[in-house]
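Tokens as discussed.
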């Protein structure tokens, strides 16, 4: 992987220059409802989220940042649009980072005021470019692609901060279009030294959104591009976190938690494979050890095709097989498969942690 030259830190999370790729999400509670917001942050933290962003719509939201920050298990990023005074208040409240575009908060004098405080506090700023809300002059330019417009917009915002001698910068260039997003990130990666927050914006609902995000984010990560990710879904934010973690696990960029493997259904299946696979995922979802568990529909796809798995079960007629590292260790009635698998894994992990 090619390393970025610059590393920043948001709370206790390092981003860029070889740091582990972190997973982010955004609360959807009213930020000034401190209890609801903290409850959701706790839920997201429990799912594996590492950085959380909060919408700051008004001064009440900005003033709530202080208490949220003090009680939050995660670093807090304040999402600011248009009003530089909200950024100043969030900085005053001790926020860990800002997300804003220097070009849309009311002129260079306002930017200077925000940067002066951010520099003093060493608070990073994410420049967040969105392909659907570019500057009017860029929107009107028919000679450039959407990707080129996003890169040009990001570079202009970066220059504003660099001219003010500020370099605690993170950049995102998001579009709802996979190709435009990937092209923009690949281009800017060659130009700037700053860490990149990657993802698609407005990716959609659960199924389609995960597919599009996995293609876009996965393509970039395979190229060694990206330092922190958010899977944007029209769904409960915890689903964004789960999807983000699964993308990293699939690419072997996160060595924590269970890698679940299961075969597709076919005419050989002699077991309720679909429900069994779901039950296996639910039963072992909180294990942090980096193990692979396979749920297979028959003896053909059992130990043979899942021999790489640490543990697995394979269905048979009225019975099933439990295997470890490709070797069958036990034959049990179908209704006892999950119970026995849990007993074996629990015992092994107890020995592993001692």
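Sequence:
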């Amino acid at each position: 992987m090619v390393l970025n030259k610059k590393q920043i830190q948001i709370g206790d999370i390092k981003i860029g220059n070889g740091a582990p790729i972190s997973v982010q999400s955004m609360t959807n509670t009213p930020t000034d409802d401190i209890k609801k917001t903290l409850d959701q942050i706790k839920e997201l933290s429990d799912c594996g989220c590492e950085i959380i962003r909060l919408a700051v719509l008004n001064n009440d939201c900005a003033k709530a940042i202080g208490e949220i920050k003090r009680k939050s298990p995660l670093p807090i990023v304040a999402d600011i649009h248009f009003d530089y005074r909200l950024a100043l208040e969030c900085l005053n409240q001790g926020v860990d980072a800002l997300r804003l575009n220097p070009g849309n908060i009311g002129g260079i004098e306002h930017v200077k005021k925000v940067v002066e405080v951010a520099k003093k506090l060493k608070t990073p700023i994410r420049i967040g470019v969105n392909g659907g809300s570019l500057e009017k002059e860029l929107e009107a330019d028919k000679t450039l692609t959407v990707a080129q417009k996003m890169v040009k917009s990001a570079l202009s915002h970066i220059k504003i901060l660099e001219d003010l001698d500020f370099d605690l910068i993170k950049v995102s260039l998001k579009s709802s279009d996979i190709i435009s997003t990937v092209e923009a990130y690949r281009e800017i990666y060659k130009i700037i030294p700053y860490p990149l927050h990657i993802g698609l914006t407005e990716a959609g609902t659960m199924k389609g959104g995960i597919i599009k995000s996995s293609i876009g984010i996965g393509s970039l990560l395979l190229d060694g591009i990206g330092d922190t990710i958010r899977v944007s879904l029209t769904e409960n934010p915890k689903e964004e976190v789960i999807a983000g973690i699964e993308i990293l696990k699939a690419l072997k960029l996160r060595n924590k938690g269970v890698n679940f493997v299961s075969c597709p259904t076919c005419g050989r299946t002699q077991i309720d494979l679909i429900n069994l696979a779901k039950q296996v995922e639910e039963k072992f979802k909180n294990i942090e050890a980096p193990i692979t568990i396979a749920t297979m529909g028959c003896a053909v796809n059992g130990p043979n095709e899942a021999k790489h798995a640490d543990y697995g079960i394979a269905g048979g007629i009225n019975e099933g097989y439990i295997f470890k590292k490709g070797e069958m260790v036990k034959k049990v009635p179908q209704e006892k498969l999950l119970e026995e698998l849990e007993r074996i894994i629990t015992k092994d992990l107890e020995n592993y942690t001692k």
